[in-house]
Hints:
Elements: H1 3-15, E1 28-30, E2 39-43, H2 60-70, E3 75-89, E4 95-108, H3 109-126, E5 133-137, H4 142-153, E6 158-161, H5 167-176, E7 179-184, H6 186-194, E8 204-207, H7 217-221, E9 225-228, H8 229-238, E10 251-256, E11 266-270, H9 271-282, E12 293-296, H10 303-315, E13 318-321, H11 341-345, E14 349-352, H12 354-371, H13 373-390, H14 400-414, E15 423-426, H15 433-443, E16 447-451, E17 461-462, E18 481-485, E19 501-507, E20 514-515, H16 519-525, E21 526-528, E22 534-544, E23 550-555, E24 559-561, E25 567-569, H17 570-577, E26 583-590, E27 597-603, H18 605-615, H19 622-627, H20 629-645, E28 656-660, H21 679-685, H22 687-694
Parallel strand pairs: 3-13, 5-6, 5-7, 6-10, 7-8, 8-9, 12-13, 12-14, 14-15, 15-16, 27-28
Antiparallel strand pairs: 1-2, 2-18, 3-4, 10-11, 11-20, 16-17, 18-19, 19-22, 21-22, 22-23, 24-25, 26-27
Helix pairs in contact: 1-13, 1-14, 2-3, 2-10, 3-4, 3-8, 9-10, 12-15, 13-14, 13-15
Pathway: Phytoalexin biosynthesis; 3,4',5-trihydroxystilbene biosynthesis; 3,4',5-trihydroxystilbene from trans-4-coumarate: step 1/2
InterPro entries: AMP-binding_CS, AMP-dep_synth/lig_dom, ANL_N_sf
Protein name: AMP-dependent synthetase/ligase domain-containing protein
Amino acid sequence: MGPYLIGVIVPFVLTLLVRNSKNGKKRGEPTAVGGEPGYAVRNKLFTSPMESAWQGISTLAELFEHSCKKHHKKRYLGTRRLITSEMEASGDGRSFEKLHLGEYEWLTYGKAFEMVCNFASGLANLGHKRDERVAIFADTRVEWFIALQGCFRRNVTVVTIYASLGQEALCHSLNETEVTTVICGKGELKKLLDISGQLRTVKHVICMDDIPSHPSLNQASSSWTITSFKDIEQLGKENPVGADLPVSADTAVIMYTSGSTGLPKGVMMTHGNILATVSSVMTIIPRLSDKDVYLAYLPLAHILELAAENIVVAVGASLGYGSPLTLTDTSNKIKRGTKGDASMLGPTILAAVPAILDRVRDGVCKKVDATGGISKKLFDLAYARRLSAINGSWFGAWGLERLLWNFLVFRKIRAILGSRVRFLLSGGAPLSGNTQRFINICIGAPIGQGYGLTETCAGATFTEYDDTSVGRVGPPIPCSVVKLIDWPEGGYSANDSPMPRGEIVVGGPNVTLGYFNNDEKTKEVYKVDEKGMRWFYTGDIGRFHADGCLEIIDRKKDIVKLQHGEYVSLGKVEAALVGSAYVDIIVLHADSFYSYCVALVVASQSALEDWAQKQGITYADFSELCQKEEAVKEVLGSLVKVGKAARLEKFEIPTKIKLLSEPWTPDTGLVTAALKIKRDAIRKAFSEDLAQLYS
């Protein structure tokens, strides 16, 4: 009996045995709070906001020391050994770096704590004072986290800066916070040297790598000391200095947002703020323990990753570092035949932003479609059966049928992320229902989709592992209370039926102090109520379901009124239209002087080229294909189809589009490090194209 026949008969027999019932679990419940009137919900299991999960621990420095002493012999931080690096030419004449990476090499918790203590002492011996600030300007790696914890042991506030930040924003961040010491990699050191004349307060630069040669090095070294990370560690080892530990209310981090609108703002976070989120999320991830393995590749300058890595510390788990460009066996920087980070590490826990999960889904779907035949039929059958099981139509979500499909169909897909992933955390942007279901089915793991902001230390709500619904972001986490307040201009009210709707306001110990050196903006969006609870006004619009779970439905800033009075929510429409197979990124544009919308579409090269091949369309390169009228017409038709299926109004679907062939990365300045679109920057960069679309 062939596998296809087994795949048909066995599930049919199993479904006759038992049905699966939906879980009607109550996850959040209404609560009385102070401040502006609205509809407030708290986590059902916690009557008051959680501050710390550990008695006697109120700072990240105390948590780190406690865990390192408890797990001192366990493996902790892992980095892959670089075997070779070479340039490889592509078909279009461009060259790309390809890496051959070896096994992970590990530090124990005990060794990591020793390095942190040495670095802290070295920083003091360098002459850095407690009331001066350090900036970490580098990609995610072992030295980043060691430096962070080293600063915490001296109660030094750390300014976090994305490695992809442009010169103007970089200067702004360093000068505004009057940073005196910058810790960076060799690539970031070159960026610093290029703007050395514009930095007013920098005295010391600590390079995580061997110090490279650079024309500006001698000139900069007259005003800076440039030292290697290893030398600072050695200096501290030879001249130990006692710890000067912070308290909960001390500012741990000034985290600069990725600047989706204008210059980035520095959000001031206390140790207590971050610890509240860490403590809360720990209670939500199922069976989290020191047996888990976490793959770290997102920017540590993003609160999602910084919180996640502190959660790893808290339970004594292992953490292996990677990068988005070496994540899988087919990632851009991985040499053919070499294993990606996920395959080599075999993580059990993974954090991701939706853009990365979308790429995994698209890659698998394209490969399945290209294979065709019985393999595609079996995949489609397996996917449909598992989807029915998860949606509660038939038994099989966790039973024998699931094991069968995993063995026959999904085993190879699971291997993309190392075969052992049991739980994923997603944040930073909305996750589409299609991608969520794909991960549930093909990777075989639940996704905890979180909602939060830098201003709330990534914490507000989080979906629980047994919640199989899509499109929602869960109940409030234990440290947060979430309130919906009326927004009359948008037509949303906390008294709406059947679900309360309104602007999302987050309260609790995770709500940060405000924006550095920006009292006006702080007073605009932060409030303290009569009971002393601090609230942050997010500008997002949500609604609460009957079980206490939140759904994000709109954003105040994204709403544009068209010529005839119709309101268009740009983000809502973009979230629907990105479901087209031809779309990598879509940016909707609406103008109050017109009655219709237009869009910029970064096209999916593989999907559009596959269509062109089937149509017999010839072209010199992808850029030429994107300019062809037939291609524009095909993509626009797809958007109309997807828009209608999503029940968008006619005026919400773009009438005209511009196809773009070049992908957008953080280096282009058009998306943030978390891959969110920078609407203002895009509008300026493509002003002529937008004007032509309206002409």
